[in-house]
Amino acid sequence: MLLSKGFEIEVYTGTPQGEIVGLSDRIVADLDGFIIEPDSRNVEYTTAPFTSYERLLCALVLPRRQLRAYLQRIGDYTLIPGSTLSLGGTDTFYRSDPHNPYHTYIEQTYGTKVVTASVHINIGISDPELLMRACRLVRVEAPLYLALSAASPFLDGAPTGYHSTRWGLFPKTPAHVPLFESHAHHIKWVNEQLAQKTMQNVRHLWSAVRPNGDRRPYNLNRLELRICDLIIDPIALLAVTSLIEARLWQLITDPTLDPLGMSSLSAEELVQLADENEMLVAKSSLDATLRHWQDGRSITAHDWIQELYGEVHGCAKQRGFACFLSPVKKILREGNTAQQWLRLYDREPDARAVLIRSIAQVEQQEIELDRYLCQAVA
Question: What is the pTM (predicted TM-score) of this model?
Answer without folding.
Answer: 0.97
